[in-house]
Design a protein that fits this description.
Elements lengths: L8 E6 L3 H13 L10 E9 L2 E8 L6 H19 L13 H9 L1
Parallel strand pairs: 1-2
Antiparallel strand pairs: 2-3
């Protein structure tokens, strides 16, 4: 079953120490996903101070493989670089489906 839409679990967390940050990340990693409810992804932005943030992305392994995750991180990094350089986001829409990928890998 594929959910038509879902809201993303996003948390903004201010921390005052490395220990508090580590504890929060550990809690996010250890928090179970309900496999019957989308999304199987949590995103948190940790504010260490007014100039330093940490992005935490927790994905259930059922929704992403290593290659897909590498592509996701590459795109995220590219968009972040565009933002910090003051550029307009150049977002590519990927038209390929999972079925397309399976067919490609069979070749």
């Amino acid at each position: 079953h594929v959910a038509a839409s879902a809201s993303l679990d996003f948390t903004l967390k201010k921390v005052n120490s490395d220990e508090e940050q580590a504890l929060f990340i550990e809690q996010q990693l250890n928090k179970a996903f309900d496999l019957t409810e989308a999304p199987l992804m949590r995103v948190s932005l940790i504010e260490r101070n007014e100039d330093e943030y940490v992005l935490v992305i927790v994905l259930h392994h059922i929704i992403v493989d290593g290659t897909s995750f590498a592509i996701f991180i590459d795109h995220l990094n590219r968009y972040y670089q565009q933002i910090i350089q003051g550029e307009n986001l150049q977002i590519k829409v990927i038209e390929a489906s999972y079925r397309d990928q399976v067919d490609f890998e069979k070749q």
